[in-house]
Amino acid sequence: MSAAKSNILKKIKQALVHKVPVPFFDNQATNNNVFQPSKQELEIAFAANFSGLQGRFSYCVDQAELVAQLSILFESRGWENIYCREEEIKANFSKHHLPITYFNDLSHCDVAITGCEFLVARTGSILLSSAQQSGRTVSVYAPVHICIASTKQLVYDIDDSLMQLRDKYNTAFPSMVSLASGPSRTADIEKTLVVGVHGPKEVFCFLIDE
Predict the structure, then answer these.
(1) Which of 40, 66, 102, 147 could make a disulfide contact with 45, Cβ separation 3.0–4.6 Å?
(2) CATH code at 134?
(3) Stretch 186-207: mean pLDDT, rounded?
(4) Taking a C-beta distance cutoff of 8 angstroms, is the pair 122, 33 a contact?
(5) pTM over 0.85
(6) In sequence order, what are the residues at sequence separation of 6 or more whose Cβ sits closer than 8 angstroms to the Cβ of residue 139?
(7) How far apart are the C-alpha atoms of 43 and 77, rounded to whole Å?
(8) How many Cα neighbours within 13 Å face the side chain of 8?
């Protein structure tokens, strides 16, 4: 055995005996964030960053305006096969008389509607988790994803969203947490950006003022 290999194995054995605390499990959180909140309102920052990622953003003053905007969108796009699992969203649509017949086949739907856990203003990302009624698949498999969110779900940075998610679920933390930043995209082939390959081709976010 070479001296270098022997030295590496020796260090590994020492580390196993004398364990060192893992930095990201340290309970002494620091406030020295690399990214500091800008002077922009979170709504404006999220809208700008989300739109910059080819997301389609719309601001609604209340549920009634949300329903009015969705009605126009569905009619203009000709969407009929609409998929949604979330009972609270469907109840609000029904309350405000949005004429929807829900489609039960996710693999052949025109559009899927979900809520979210949080909206991250700095990156323009939608934070989703498996704990939502939509589960893991709805926001990924549909060709178009519509997210319904409220202003109280806005946070500045990713670490803010993860800390609030931890406080929300405590020991029952979701088995899957994902960040959706606009439509799916890849540059695997010759570094050419292609949108909508591994997920939705379009992502809409309707933000309700609450």
Answers:
(1) 40
(2) 3.40.50.10420
(3) 70
(4) no
(5) no
(6) 112, 114, 126, 128, 145, 147, 178, 180, 199, 200
(7) 26
(8) 5
